[in-house]
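Hi there,

I know you've been waiting on this one. I reran it after we fixed the sequence typo, so this is the corrected version. Both the input and the resulting structure follow.
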Amino acid sequence: MKWDELTRQLGAAAAAVTAMFALFNSVLSDWVPPAEAMGAPAVTGIASFVSLVVLLVLVLVMRRRLTVAHRRQIAAAAGAAAIAGLVVAYVYYGDLDAHVFVWPPAASAQPDEGEPRRHLRGEFNEMGRQASDVSLTAAITEAGGLHKAQADQALWDETSRQQVERRLVLLYVVMTSLLSGAVFGLVLAVMFSSPASTA
């Protein structure tokens, strides 16, 4: 593999990761899990690093010039990665939607509760299942506010919340890696589609 081709492939990998995480830091920022143990920026950083490492490994594995057949294989693999990424995204979003909530409600924000922000809950325990039949906001309010509800583990256990957090972080990393890989494959197929690239 010539240096100019390797440089172009590395550039494609960096462009794919940059594009993906520009989206997740802007218009898709609500898709980043509110991981309380490490914080959303750390989760995004981990996902970016893992995606970049995966793509760099792929670049190093492809130690030959890309022919038309190679481009077709890369395009097919990119399509498969995109489909897998969308399936994971569907599962991830359902999990995210079920476990992320905003507290305190903007309409009833109180100084002792801080500014409204996203939080992560665990699976409801028995009391949580009964209370959540009304609404999560009402259940937390009835439990004495979020801090008290969490301290007393009134609606969900801390162990359960941590398990949900780990699951969401893992799904997020897998989803972003697959989608970055799909973008990378498409960029490669386009970049190396000129006659000069396959000569």
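Quick highlight: The first strand starts at residue 100 and ends at 103.

Best,
R. S.
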